[in-house]
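Narrative of accomplishments. A recurring question from our advisory board has been how the design workflow behaves on a single, concrete structure rather than in aggregate. To address it, we present the structure tokens for one chain from the evaluation set, followed by the sequence designed for it. No filtering or post-editing was applied between the two.
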């Protein structure tokens, strides 16, 4: 197999080519005692409340500035676990390879996935590969398992009136990086794709009264705030001037007629914490590796349950709804 440069249908046969593929690409990068046992199912230790999530990744292009589909699939999965206050522990990966996929590209993506899993502190305990007809693409499905402290209640339905609303950094970077690459626009915008474990751990360990966490992905901050307002039956009031946006992304948005409030990230969160903890929570976020430019951007009120709005610089008020229409396809 070593001489072959592309994935062929034979790699999905379940026979020798499949075994070679698993041994030469996946087993080396993902090696751990659970996976190496090659059992039909992983049996792993755990206790307490279990958080479970699953996600599929179809991003195009497979590699982009600041990340790739491998890194993205780990980050997306662990971040969803973290948003419930869980400590991510195990992930599974299903790879759907299209015929014609470049073997070196696959190798890089698998390596990146393994490195990111290590960074995020999760063990890859089960996996699968399939080969389908196509044009050299790659899709990944990941599931994640984590454990939640018994008394912790971090939930979309738990935003409370008076809470401070914080974001962990610049809005829209991932969306802008993907779109720039697809359009062949030359800039230095990077995806923010990152695991957010350090941040969540730091907030909880410092005893911050965290009510709700949400990673700001597809649909952007505007969509997330509207969804959380409905889930918690409160009002989200944010200040436009306080929303952190990278200057280059802001320029890009101006040029393209895009709104950073509706552009996705892959390494940012919005946190709802008790008002008295706001300053300290912001300092904690800003001290983390992926939390530079963290900011308090508003607060939860009781004006109109289920609504969200942004105060614009000129005294105006813009109502935020969920993203309407298609958005950017295959962003994650
Ligand atoms: Mg999420």
């Amino acid at each position: 197999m070593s001489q072959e440069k592309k994935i062929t249908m034979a790699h999905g046969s379940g026979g020798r080519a499949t075994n070679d593929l698993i041994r030469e690409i996946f087993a080396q990068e993902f090696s751990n005692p659970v996976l190496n046992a090659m059992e039909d199912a992983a049996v792993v230790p755990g206790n307490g409340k279990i958080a479970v999530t699953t996600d599929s990744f179809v991003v195009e292009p497979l590699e982009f500035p600041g990340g790739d589909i491998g890194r993205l699939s780990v980050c997306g999965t662990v971040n969803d676990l973290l948003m419930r206050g869980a400590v991510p522990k195990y992930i599974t990966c299903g790879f759907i390879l299209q015929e014609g996929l470049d073997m070196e590209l696959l190798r890089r993506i698998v390596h990146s996935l393994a490195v990111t899993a290590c960074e995020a502190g999760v063990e890859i305990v089960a996996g699968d590969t399939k080969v389908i007809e196509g044009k050299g693409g790659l899709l990944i499905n990941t599931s994640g398992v984590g454990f939640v402290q018994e008394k912790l209640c971090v939930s979309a339905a738990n935003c409370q009136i008076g809470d401070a609303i914080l974001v962990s950094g610049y809005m829209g970077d991932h969306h802008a990086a993907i779109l720039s690459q697809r359009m062949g626009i030359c800039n230095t915008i990077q995806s923010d794709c990152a695991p957010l474990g350090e941040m969540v751990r730091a907030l909880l360990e410092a005893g911050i009264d965290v009510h709700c966490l949400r990673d700001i992905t597809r649909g952007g901050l505007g969509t997330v705030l509207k969804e959380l307002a409905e889930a918690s039956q409160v009002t989200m009031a944010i200040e436009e001037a306080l929303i952190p946006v990278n200057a280059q992304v802001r320029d890009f948005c101006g040029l393209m007629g895009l709104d950073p409030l509706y552009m996705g990230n892959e390494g940012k969160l919005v946190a709802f914490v008790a008002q008295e903890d706001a300053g300290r929570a912001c300092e904690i976020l800003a001290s983390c590796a992926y939390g530079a430019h963290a900011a308090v951007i508003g607060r939860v009120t009781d004006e109109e349950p289920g609504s969200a709005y942004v105060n614009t610089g000129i005294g105006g008020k813009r109502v935020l709804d969920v993203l309407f229409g298609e958005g950017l396809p295959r962003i994650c």
